[in-house]
Amino acid sequence: MERSTDVNDEIGPLMQLIFTGTESTFKTALSMAVATALDWPLSSEFAREYIAKLLLEQPHLDMHHFTKEDFLACAKGQIERQEQMGYYSDDHGVFDTDGVTLSIWGADKFDGAENQWLTPPKNGLYLLCAPTNAASEDPQRIDIDRREYLHGQYIQWLEKLGRDYVLLTSESFEGRLKEAMHHLAERRIR
Fold this sequence. Notes:
The protein is an alpha/beta fold. The chain has a single domain (5-186), classed as 3-Layer(aba) Sandwich (Rossmann fold), CATH 3.40.50.300. It has helices spanning 5-10, 27-38, 46-57, 68-84, 99-110, 147-160, 173-186; strands at 16-21, 42-43, 93-96, 124-129, 165-168. The chain has a five-stranded parallel sheet with strand order 2-3-1-4-5.
């Protein structure tokens, strides 16, 4: 997507944009496109890289049996990456997931929420991607049939934590990107 200088020149104090939501809802592609459009740095999701490496080393790994140790390694890597990318600073940044996802994942798979990852950024907006699109299969995705339930968990957590969020509901990537840019323009994000 071409950089939108009109949007970028009119945006206010918001510093961090966090894409969040269930699997297979365009989060990674959206975070990349928005970061490019705004010319902001992008912090990618650490877990995708970690799991891709695991699957290369262990091609028959059953993701339903992902260990808590591996989850904790993903969490540690994600938090370190966020800190390196200015998550807690006054710098602009786009984040493909954060501690909310880690907390929901931990609560869902390991019988307990890990609240240590919930420190919010100073000036963040969550872009919650709804599971209204068709899901695509991926060896890392194991909860495609549970997307509606998990989406409800995201809404509950974001509201309980008092996080500022907008809901992206378009069924297509292009429509969802347009929604995201519209919300950003409304909030004068640059």
